[in-house]
Amino acid sequence: MTQRKRIDSWLSDMDGVLVHEGRPVPGADEFIKRLSESGKRFKVLTNNSIYTRRDLAVRLAGAGLDVPAESIFTSALATAQFLDDQRPGGSAYVIGEAGLTTALHEVGYILTDLDPDYVVLGETRTYSFTQITRAIRLIEGGARFIATNPDPIGPSTEGSLPACGAVAAMITKATGVEPYFVGKPNPRMMRSALNEIDAHSETTAMIGDRMDTDIVSGMEAGLFTILVLTGVTQRHEIDRYPYRPSLVVDSVADLIDLI
Q1: Sign of CA pseudo-dihedral 69, 147, 14, 34
Q2: What is the pLDDT of residue 155?
Q3: Which domains does the chain have, with CATH numbers?
Q4: Three-class secondary structure assignment of 200-217
Q5: Is the pLDDT of residue 51 over 90?
Q6: In the structure, what pLDDT confidence band is assigned to residue 255 with cuts at 50, 70 and 90?
Q7: What are the CA-CA distances from residue 181 to residues 26, 28, 63, 161, 169 (Å)?
Q8: Other residues' Cβ atoms within 10 Å of the Cβ of residue 157
Q9: Residue 4 in this model has a pLDDT that exceeds 70
Q10: Which of 106, 170, 173, 182 has the fewest Cβ atoms nearer than 10 Å?
Q11: What is the DSSP string of 123-165?
């Protein structure tokens, strides 16, 4: 594919790249170990806004992957940064869990259902019709509509679950207001992660398993993009897209020698 540039920093998706259905992808432990030993800066990215970065570090450790909490960046953190940039010290009505509410508290946001500046929709295991109704009425009253990510479904042991993008579509249908999605494939999330590790796009690689989120957002942020085939997108599907990754490999195990 495209000629590989020198890679000084790494961004990696989590699900489908490092872990799959709660289990480590073969070679992921050695990949993370090699990254840590190299001293190169890296971030593990996820659109999941349910958990705090500390929660995710513990979950990854349970899968045998030693990723420091500060090396994890979520759509909840990206959303909190975005709102802090746009309207410091603002207020929000939040549908979400600890990952999102903690991130907003940490940037000084007030969480309220009384005339908030924003309605912020994230992931939760149990979407409440009462909360969704309240969100609709607040948006009708003038609150700005933000969502952590556009993913329509999420996985579970029983099958697919409606996720942030699906619930956002319902709220949009009721209000006529489209949300601003902060997480992937918005390249803003990539740029926020780059800023956190003081990295430059021209010497950073983005590893992902989805052409429609990881690869397109990495490409739009100017990164060297690497598609692994351990998650959603399979090799025969790549040519369906009008853009291509810089490199395609079977798994992160094939990237260890590039570090």
Answers
A1: negative
A2: 65
A3: 9-47+185-258 (3.40.50.1000), 79-181 (3.40.50.1000)
A4: CHHHEEEEECCHHHHHHH
A5: yes
A6: very high
A7: 32, 29, 30, 19, 12
A8: 6
A9: no
A10: 173
A11: --SS--HHHHHHHHHHHHTT-EEEES----EE--TTS-EE-HH
Query: What are the angstrom distances between the C-alpha of 206 and each of 2, 117, 136, 219?
Result: 14, 33, 36, 9
212 is catalytic: no
On the question of pLDDT at 22 being above 90, the answer is no
Phi, psi of 4 (to 5 degrees): -75, 130
Residue of 13, 117, 151, 214 with catalytic role: 13
pLDDT at 5 over 80: no
Structure tokens given for 117: 């500046």
Q: How many CB atoms lie within 10 A of CB 98?
A: 15
116-134 average pLDDT score = 96
Quote the tokens at residue 22: 């709660």
Length of the chain counted residue by residue? 259
* Beta-strand relationship, 161-162 and 153-154: antiparallel
56-81 average pLDDT score: 96
The backbone region for 22, taken as left when phi is positive above 0, alpha when psi lies in -120 to 50, beta otherwise, is left
pLDDT over 90 (residue 86): yes
Is pLDDT above 90 for 125? no
Q: Is 214 annotated in some ligand binding site?
A: no
Average pLDDT taken over every residue of the chain = 94
Enter the DSSP assignment of 15.
Answer: B
* 13 is an active site residue: yes
50: tokens are 């349910």
